[in-house]
């Protein structure tokens, strides 16, 4: 079973930047869209950004223009560049792959990486 390890979170001031990484233990089939999700305290997990095998991306309205998702197939790694961070971006960030046909996730949710935006 594939394992995904998120890293790169931390404490940053409003307006700052962070880059998150999601390293997969093996190559994930192209039928899976790779996504970054986040869950803030007391809220449901939400999709922040996703990328499919052809490179097409989509973003939640709340992060458009500030976040960029990318991937390095050679390294089996997906990144999330986060700029102009706001306090409302504070959450635990997770990555996962979702099958574009069945909707199933490629693996159980991992530990995630905490992002805290605060002055």
- Counting helices, strands and paired strands, the structural category is mainly beta
| Largest sheet data | 6 strands, mixed
The gross shape turns out to be globular
Number of strands: 10
Give the strand line-up of the largest sheet: 2-10-9-4-5-6
Strand content: over 45%
Could you describe the 3D structure shown?
This protein has 119 residues and is mainly β. It is 0% helix and 48% strand. The chain has no helices and 10 strands. Strands 2-10-9-4-5-6 form a 6-stranded mixed sheet, with no helix packed on it. The radius of gyration is 13 Å and the shape is globular. It starts with a strand and ends with a strand. The model has no long low-confidence stretch (mean pLDDT 96).
Name the features.
mainly beta; 4-stranded antiparallel sheet; 10 strands; single chain; 119 residues; 6-stranded mixed sheet
């Amino acid at each position: 079973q594939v394992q995904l390890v998120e890293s790169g979170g931390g404490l940053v001031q409003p307006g700052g930047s962070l880059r998150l990484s999601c390293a997969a233990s093996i190559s994930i089939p192209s039928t899976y869209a790779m996504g970054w999700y986040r869950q803030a305290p007391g809220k449901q997990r939400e999709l922040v950004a996703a990328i499919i095998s052809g490179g097409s991306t989509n973003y939640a309205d709340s992060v458009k223009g500030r976040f960029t998702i990318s991937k390095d197939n050679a390294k089996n790694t997906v990144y999330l560049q986060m700029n102009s961070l706001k306090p409302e971006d504070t959450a635990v960030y997770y990555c996962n792959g979702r099958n574009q046909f069945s909707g199933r996730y490629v693996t159980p949710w991992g530990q995630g990486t905490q992002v805290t935006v605060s002055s």
